[in-house]
Design a protein that fits this description.
This is Leucine rich repeat. Pfam families: LRR_1, LRR_14. Keywords: Coiled coil, Leucine-rich repeat, Repeat. With about 675 residues, the chain is of the alpha/beta class. Helix content is about 20%, strand content about 10%. The chain has helices spanning about 195-200, 270, 275-285, 300-315, 325-330, 355-360, 375-380, 420-425, 545, 550-560, 620-645, 655-675; strands spanning about 25, 45-50, 70, 95, 115-120, 140, 160-165, 185, 210, 230-235, 255, 335, 365, 375, 385-390, 395, 410, 440, 460-465, 485, 505-510, 530, 595, 600. Helix 6 links the parallel strand 12 (about 335) and strand 13 (about 365). Helix 11 packs antiparallel against helix 12 (about 655-675). The protein is globular. It starts with about 20 loop residues before the first strand and ends with a helix.
C-alpha cells in the first residue's frame, strides 16, 4: 500500500484492521504521531515513514511489529528511538538518517539480522556498547554526525563492505574489522592526524576506495602501499609534504587525489599531469612493497635503450632459454615474460604442447616488450584468468582471445590500439561477456568508444583514460549492468552522454577533459559515491562545491533537478552513418538486436539516417572557437613554464615577485578566454 506524497496529517486507529497488509509506504506526508492500531499490523515486513513530521516520542509498541524486515524513518525530527525497536529480531535494514538523534538504542546489538544501517545527518556522539554484536552488518553510513571515536565497535563487524564516517569529529582512526570484505572506506572531513597501520592493513586484501581528504594527516605510512587492490585514494587537503614511493606501484590505482597538500618533495608539474604521471614519478624514488602484486620498477630511457641494444647484438633469445621459465609456469600457473624485447611470442607458448598451457596457465604478463599484435596462440590458453600486455606496440588483437571463457582481467595500457581494433577484437557476443570484470585500455588511440564493449555484461571496472575520446553520446551504458568504476579522465570529451544509466556506477572520473556541462542526472545515481571532475571548463558545478568532495557535488547536481525527478529509461537511438555497414556489422532489420555501425549503435528496428549535425553558423563558430582554444593552449604552456620557474630555490625575492605578478596576469587572461567558449 503506497500513500506517499498526499500531505496526510493523521491516520485513523482503524488501520489496525488491515491485518493482511505486508507493505506500507507513507513517505512525504505530514504525520506527527502514529495511532496504537498501527502496531496491530503484525504481517508488515516493509514500513516507510520517511519525510514526515514525527517528532514526539515514538510508541514503545513498535516492538510488536516483529515481522518487519525494513524500516524507514528518515527525514523526520526524532531525537531518540523507542527501545522496543531492538525487539524487531527480523529487521534487516534500518533508515533513520536526517533526524536529530543523539544516541542509538543501547541494545541495538540485539538486531542480529541487521545488515544495512543508515543513520547519517544526526547528532550522534558515540556508538552503543552492543554495536559490535551487529555481525551481519554490511552497509554502515554514519556520516555527518558528531562522533569523536568508534572505539572497538567496528572491529567485530566481519561482514562489513561499506563504511562511511565522513564529516564527524573523529580524532582516532577507527579499528577496522579483521577478515572483512570491506570494499569502500570513507573517513574524509574529520580531524585524523594519523592512519593506524594495524587497522588499515586488516582490509588490505579487499579495500578499493579509501577517502581520507580534509583531515590533518602529516604523513602516510609506507605500508599503505600494501593495499594492492586500491583503485581510489583521496588524500586532498591534508598536511602531507611527501608521498610513499610504494603507492606508485599499485596496479589498480587510477584515482589518486592529492590536491591541497604542501607537497614540497614533488614538483607541481608532476602532480598536475595526472595519476599515471605521479605514480611513474613515485616509482623512480623507491622500491615496490613486498609480498603484493604490483607494477614493475621504473626504468629510465637510457637503461631501456641499452637493453634493446644488447638484445639486438645478441639476437633473439632462443626458445631453449625459456624452458626453465615454462616449466615453472606450468607448475605455478603464472608466466611473466616482461622486458624481453619480444616482437613475436616464443613458439612453445601454445595451448597444446609439452607444457599443456591450455589447462595449466592462469596468469600471463607480456608487458614492456615490442609486440605489435596478439596472435591466435593466446586464444588457445583457455584457462587464462588474467592477461596483461601493457607498454607494447599493440595495434591488433586476434578475435580468438575474446573467446577465452575464464578471462577476468584484461590490461592493455600503453599501446596503439584504435576503436576499430577493439571492435574487430570483440566482435558479436564474445565469450568475455560472461567473465571479464576489468578492462584497462588507458593510454591508447581510441577516438570513439566501441559499442562492442557494452556486450561485456560482467564488467565491473572500465578504464579509458589518456585516449582521444570526444564524446560518450549514444553508448548504451544501461547494458553494463555490473560496472561500478569508470575512468574517462585525460581525453578530449565534450559530452558524457547517458553515463548515468549504468545501474551500479559507484566511482566516476572525467578529470582533464573539455566538458562545458556536467549532466545533473549523475546526482540521481543510487550507488555513485566518488566523482572526480577537476580540469574541465564546465560551469555546472561551482569550484567551491567541487572542493568539498564527491558527496557535496552529487547533492548539488541532484538539487539542480526538479523535485521528484527520476532517471528515465534510455530510448532507442537512430544513428547517422557515412558508409554502408557490412553484413557482418549489421543484423537484418526488425531483429531487435544491437547493431554496430561505425562504432555507434542503434537498439531496435531500422537505422535511420539522421539529419546533419547542428545547423549552426558552423564555420564562423568553429573558427572562432579554434582560435580561442589555441590561445588557451598557449596560455597553459606559459603558465606551466612560470610555475616551474617559481619552483627554483635560487630566485631572488624581487625576481620571484615579478614572476608571481606575471603569472597572475596570465591566469586572469586564461579565465577571460575560457569564458568566451561558454
Amino acid at each position: 500500500m503506497d500513500l506517499s506524497h498526499n500531505a496526510i496529517p493523521s491516520i485513523s486507529d482503524e488501520i489496525g484492521g488491515l491485518t493482511s497488509v505486508t507493505s506500507i509506504k507513507l513517505t512525504k506526508n505530514a504525520l506527527q504521531v502514529l495511532p496504537e492500531g498501527f502496531f496491530e499490523l503484525h504481517a508488515l515486513t516493509y514500513l516507510d515513514l520517511s519525510h514526515n513530521e514525527l517528532e514526539q516520542n515514538l510508541s514503545e509498541s513498535f516492538g510488536a511489529l516483529i515481522g518487519l524486515k525494513e524500516l524507514g524513518l528518515s527525514g523526520n525530527k526524532l531525537s531518540h528511538l523507542p527501545n522496543s525497536i531492538t525487539l524487531l529480531e527480523n529487521l534487516e535494514a534500518l533508515h533513520v538518517d536526517e533526524n536529530k538523534l543523539t544516541a542509538l538504542p543501547e541494545r541495538i546489538g540485539n538486531l542480529h539480522k541487521l545488515h544495512v544501517l543508515n543513520a547519517h545527518s544526526n547528532h550522534l556522539t558515540a556508538l552503543p556498547s552492543s554495536f559490535g554484536a551487529l555481525r551481519n552488518m554490511q552497509n554502515l553510513d554514519l556520516k555527518k554526525n558528531r562522533l569523536e571515536s568508534t572505539g572497538d565497535a567496528l572491529a567485530t563487524l566481519t561482514k562489513l563492505k561499506f563504511l562511511d564516517l565522513r564529516q564527524n569529529k573523529l580524532a582516532v582512526f577507527p579499528a577496522l574489522p579483521e577478515g572483512a570484505d570491506l570494499d569502500q572506506v570513507f573517513l574524509g572531513y574529520n580531524t585524523l592526524s594519523t592512519i593506524n597501520e594495524t587497522s588499515i592493513l586488516r582490509v588490505k586484501d579487499s579495500v578499493t576506495v579509501l577517502d581520507m581528504r580534509d583531515n590533518k594527516l602529516a604523513n602516510l605510512p609506507a605500508n599503505i602501499a600494501c593495499l594492492y587492490r586500491l583503485k581510489t585514494l583521496d588524500v586532498a587537503n591534508n598536511d602531507l609534504s611527501d608521498l610513499p614511493p610504494g603507492l606508485g606501484y599499485l596496479k589498480h590505482l587510477n584515482h589518486f587525489i592529492v590536491d591541497g597538500n604542501p607537497l614540497r618533495a614533488i614538483r607541481r608539474a608532476v602532480i598536475s599531469a595526472g595519476c599515471e604521471s605521479l605514480k611513474k614519478y613515485l616509482r623512480t624514488r623507491g622500491a615496490p612493497p613486498a609480498g603484493v602484486d604490483v607494477l614493475e620498477e621504473e626504468r629510465d630511457e637510457l637503461q631501456i635503450e641499452r637493453e634493446r641494444s644488447t638484445h639486438a647484438d645478441d639476437g633473439a633469445q632462443p626458445a631453449s632459454d625459456y624452458i626453465f621459465q615454462f616449466r615453472e609456469a606450468a607448475a605455478s600457473g603464472t608466466m611473466i615474460l616482461m622486458n624481453n624485447s619480444l616482437n613475436v611470442l616464443p613458439p612453445d607458448l601454445v595451448g597444446q604442447g609439452q607444457f599443456d598451457f591450455g589447462s595449466t596457465l592462469f596468469h600471463l604478463n607480456l608487458s614492456s616488450n615490442q609486440l605489435r599484435s596478439l596472435p591466435a596462440a593466446i586464444g588457445e590458453l583457455v584457462s587464462l584468468k588474467t592477461l596483461t600486455v601493457e607498454d607494447n606496440e599493440l595495434q591488433a588483437l586476434d578475435p580468438s582471445i575474446a573467446a577465452l571463457p575464464h578471462l577476468e582481467l584484461l590490461r592493455l595500457r600503453k599501446n596503439s590500439l584504435s576503436a576499430e581494433s577493439i571492435s574487430e577484437f570483440l566482435g558479436n557476443s564474445p565469450a568475455l561477456g560472461d567473465s571479464l570484470k576489468e578492462l584497462d585500455v588507458r593510454n591508447n588511440s581510441l577516438a570513439t568508444l566501441p559499442v562492442e564493449i557494452s556486450q561485456l555484461r560482467s564488467l565491473e571496472t572500465l578504464l579509458l583514460g589518456f585516449n582521444r575520446l570526444e564524446t560518450l553520446d549514444r553508448f548504451p551504458w544501461s547494458q553494463l549492468t555490473k560496472v561500478s568504476v569508470v575512468s574517462v579522465s585525460d581525453n578530449k570529451l565534450r559530452a558524457l552522454g547517458r553515463i548515468y544509466d549504468a545501474p551500479l556506477l559507484a566511482s566516476l572520473s572525467f578529470e582533464n577533459n573539455s566538458l562545458t556541462k556536467v549532466p545533473c542526472e549523475l546526482g540521481l545515481c543510487p550507488h555513485l559515491r566518488a566523482i572526480y571532475m577537476n580540469g574541465n571548463p564546465q560551469r555546472t558545478v561551482r569550484g567551491g562545491v567541487i572542493a568539498k568532495g564527491s558527496a557535496e557535488i552529487l547533492a548539488y547536481l541532484k538539487n539542480k533537478l526538479p523535485p521528484d525527478t527520476v532517471l528515465s529509461p534510455p530510448s532507442p537511438v537512430a544513428v547517422s552513418r557515412t558508409k554502408k555497414p557490412s553484413s557482418a556489422a549489421s543484423k537484418s532489420r526488425n531483429t531487435g538486436t544491437l547493431r554496430v555501425i561505425d562504432n555507434t549503435y542503434a537498439t531496435q528496428g531500422d537505422v535511420a539516417v539522421a539529419a546533419p549535425v547542428a545547423p549552426l553558423d558552423s564555420f564562423t563558430v568553429l573558427n572562432e572557437n579554434a582560435v580561442i582554444e589555441l590561445e588557451l593552449s598557449k596560455l597553459s604552456t606559459q603558465i606551466e613554464q612560470l610555475e616551474s620557474r617559481l619552483d627554483t630555490q635560487t630566485l631572488s625575492a624581487a625576481k620571484r615577485f615579478a614572476l608571481k605578478k606575471e603569472l597572475a596576469m596570465l591566469r586572469s587572461k586564461k579565465i577571460r578566454e575560457a569564458r568566451k567558449l561558454q
